[in-house]
Amino acid sequence: MKLKYFLPVLAVLSISLTVSAETLTVYSAGPKGLSRSLVKGFEKETGTKVNLYQATGGKIMSRYQAEKSNPHVDVMISSSLGHAITLTKAGELLPYQSANAAHVPDSLKTDTYVAQGAAVLAIAYNTRSHVPAPKRWSDLARPEYKNQLTMPDPAKSGSALTLVEGLTEKMGNDAWQLFSDLKTNQILIPGANKAALNPVLQGAKSVVFGAVDYIALGLKAKGESLNVVYPEDGTVLAPRPIMILKSTRHEKLAKRFVDYILSDKGQNKVAGTLILPARTDIPAQRPGFADLNLIQFDSVAAAAHAKTTKARFADIMGR
């Protein structure tokens, strides 16, 4: 009798160990705190172990490309929509649309990816500086901002590239003239987003053209002398796509992870970092979709011309 009772227990235990032994591998762009919080929440809810690699969007994409002959990643969260478009075009993503994506705008989801949330590109300025508070992108071409500006490099920042694409789509040659005027105003382009923000935080410069808003808003909340302006003439979203790789060996777990990120719990974690949550029914803890003048443009067409766009920008800036 004891043996008959014990064998089913062993069978259940064996099944449990098999399930818990599965490990999901996630490559995620920052912020680091959000990536870790989402992973811990998913692990707690499902009992699944997650192997997290957290880096910049460019680095996670490079790692994936380097491992392509023996892929490890199951789910990727990038800071660049262009990565999702590129991988979709290459046929490397698994089609999946979570039921939890019902309140995500159509512009932020396709059959192969969905936004975790989005940053918005803004003007961030040091409130201790003596320059006037700007209201429009074009304000920063005025003489009073000369030698006071920084901007992330579109060659190193996917969000900065998105801004250049959006402005050139809306303004045409006027946008390229604006960039030329910014060059005349001696704009500093030191690297990616943090490299552009640091001189303004330190007081060496006054204004960031194309700041990632949630980073600046977070620093302002911590007491930094920063203000964030959403230009009257419109700005762009920088969506953060979640993608399941077609090469995944853990399809069900990968889909559950996407479901979790788009759940109430997951989206509230996103909102808590001051990133705009993808779901419109989740309260944003910062200006939301309805508060912003957003430029709409064809991101797929823009991605196809990204190299040309980056090259033209670099040529104007003398890089």
Could you explain the architecture of this structure?
- This protein is an alpha/beta fold and 319 residues long.
- It has two domains: 2-118 and 239-285, Periplasmic binding protein-like II (D-Maltodextrin-Binding Protein, domain 2); 119-236 and 299-316, D-Maltodextrin-Binding Protein, domain 2.
- Helix content is 43%, strand content 16%.
- It is built from twelve helices and nine strands.
- The protein has helices at 2-21, 32-46, 57-66, 81-89, 158-171, 173-184, 193-202, 213-221, 251-261, 264-272, 299-304, 306-316, and strands at residues 23-28, 49-54, 75-77, 113-126, 149-150, 207-212, 226-229, 237-244, 276-277.
- Strands 1, 2, 3, 4, 5, 6, 7, 8 and 9 form a nine-stranded mixed beta sheet that branches.
- Strand 1, helix 2 and strand 2 (49-54) form a beta-alpha-beta unit.
- Helix 2 runs antiparallel to helix 10 and helix 5 (158-171) packs across helix 6.
- The longest helix has 20 residues, at 2-21.
- The chain is globular.
- Residues 9-20 have low confidence and may be disordered.
First-to-last CA distance: 80 Å
The CATH topology of the largest domain is what? Answer: D-Maltodextrin-Binding Protein, domain 2
Order of helices and strands: HEHEHEHEEHHHEHEEHHEHH
Radius of gyration (Å): 22 Å
**Number of individual domains:** 2
Number of extended strands? 9
Question: Approximately how much beta-strand content do the residues carry?
Answer: 15-25%
Give the second-level CATH assignment, the architecture of the largest domain: 3-Layer(aba) Sandwich
CATH superfamily of the largest domain: Periplasmic binding protein-like II
